[in-house]
Amino acid sequence: MTNQRGFTLIEMAIVLVIITILIGGLAVPLSAQIQARRIAETRADMRAIQDALIGYAMSRPTAGHPYLPCPDDGTGVPGDEGARDTDGQCVTPRGMLPWRKLGVDDADTWGNRYTYAVTPALADSDGFSSTTPGTLKVHVNKNCSGAGVADQMAAVIVSHGANGRGAQNKSGGTPLTPAAVPENERQNLSTPAAPCGVDGFVSLTPPDIDFDDLVVWINPLILVKQACSGGCPPTP
């Protein structure tokens, strides 16, 4: 008669440890793949936002004079444009993206609102001309010293990345105060508190451990070329 021998507790424990290690080894690459897919999808969304902003400018009816939308200042309907003053300029030239007005996604793939800034003269409802300069700058770090990544841009859009530090989540919740956000990322918030000022943004390539923001911008030359065939007429 053959004796049947089962697994001992030690053998079962060893098997469980091996299975755990194998699953853990698979989970890390899977997590990286998911993160890479979210980054790619957010970048695609941001390209769509760039196109939507230029399309908005092209569709403005004021005597053929194009202009960009104002940021969402948080005082009206979420995702709509913020207020303009009596001269037609944005009261707040930096805030959240007016996604409802543009007809684009309301947040990035991590569920956080995009930050959007615009050159005031290019969002003036009187329209801009082919010589209206941009004022927004994209720097390589929070010190804003030396040559930047981009200078005199028309508009800048920011996704606050996977960590979402300081961003407004579309599901609600209170974002971190600027003081709790690393300085490079702090500069990209709706209310920056770093040396670059309200016209400055930071873009790092490659991102570091304290920075995972995605930053894109619109060059005024491209804006003019697409919004005004043959050049924009002089402003009134």
Write the layout of secondary structure elements.
Blueprint: H1 9-58, E1 94-96, H2 99-102, E2 115-118, E3 136-139, E4 150-153, E5 155-159, H3 183-186, E6 200-202, E7 214-218, H4 220-227
Parallel strand pairs: 3-6
Antiparallel strand pairs: 1-2, 2-5, 3-4, 5-7
Keywords:
4 helices, elongated, alpha+beta, four-stranded antiparallel β-sheet
In short:
With 236 residues, this protein is of the alpha+beta class. The chain is 28% helix and 12% strand.
For the termini, the CA-CA separation is 105 Å
Give the DSSP E fraction (strand runs of 2 or more residues): 5-15%
Q: Number of DSSP strands?
A: 7
Uncertain runs are: none
- What is the percent of helical residues? 25-40%
Q: What is the SS-derived class? A: alpha+beta
| Strand order across the largest sheet | 1-2-5-7
Verbal overview:
The mean pLDDT is 86. The strands form 2 sheets. The protein has a 4-stranded antiparallel beta sheet with strand order 1-2-5-7. The protein is elongated and about 90 Å long. The chain is built from 4 helices and 7 strands. By secondary structure, it is an alpha+beta fold. The protein starts with 8 loop residues before the first helix and ends in a 9-residue tail after the last helix. It has one domain.
